[in-house]
Amino acid sequence: MDRRHLLAGGAALAATTSVLPGLAGPATAAPAAPSPQLPSRAAIISVLRRVADHWIGAHSNSGDNGWANATFFSGLLALHRLTGDTRYLGYARGWAEKHAYGLMGGVSTRHADNHCAGQAYLDLYEIEPEEQKLTAIEASLRRMVYTDQPAKNDDWWWDDALHMAMPPFARIGALRGDTQYWEKLYSLYHHTKQVRGGPGLYDAGSGLWYRDDRFLPGKVTSPGGKPVLWSRGNGWVAGGHTKTLKVLPAGERHVAEYRDTLTRLVTATAAVQRTDGFWNVNLADSSHLPGPETSGTAFFAYGTAYAISAGLVTGSAFLPVAARAWNGLVTTAVHADGFLGYVQKVGDRPESSQPITYDSTADFAVGAFLLAGTELAGLAV
Is 103 left (phi over 0), alpha (psi -120 to 50) or beta? Predict the structure, then answer.
């Protein structure tokens, strides 16, 4: 492994700031910086329950089985595992049964977004093992691995796809003891990272990712002439790596690369965290639509918390980063009744779904918040 790519600890934080122009501190400071100390485990769980309960209470219809809502259920089931609360399990079970554990596009789909629901189905299977829960997701992935153009590896053309589909491939491979799912996962991943658009979507210099090939160097820039490295796009990458690494055995031959890539991403984002604990929608330009944004921030907190617990980075250097993110989210974005605000809604770039306000929210961001909090609860006392 190239040692230049293995960044961890305080030295890495300092080194990353100079990699790309514009990767510097935020344009505006919050009135009061959030605490770099995590609250108690009980306090974290209390906020998680408040946010989850608000969303469920406001959505008697549990919604579709697309990627956005599936991300919410991934977070909700993480909260169920943490608390054992059967209300969360029941709501998720009802949602999955409403869709007959199926996928948008059916089993012939190759689209990563359609595979995201499989994460929640796998969670439900692990809690209550019944094979029909996996029929659709397993059939769809198996087609890609074995029968439907198995040499085709260009399906994941945007970085969000890593969160949507890496974890199902990793988990089906582990469940069935079939490493071909892991090999297919890596082939798809490698294309996204190193091939797509010519150089791939991964910027090795910074450790960050371009959302898709429209944003590669020489194409789209910010109004200030700087790169466009979308916060939530990188958040999806962090989430995908985190969930995948939670499943794969340490000896799987691609794990070292996944670990290194997540380490570099966590390090790069730590270097550009805002003083209010959030991240801007464009990580490379602090003046490009500056302001707090919840979904990217929650995913970075999730990935950072996992990196600490997995020993990829040191707690002394990175726990304050995760704690500031969490405390900033709770103080700034969580309303008294549990509504989660400052969410950039569906989009593919910083300009999407603007303006971002105290009253803008989305299902996938609630899921990201629940994932972040459940991971941080494991680091709290």
Answer: beta
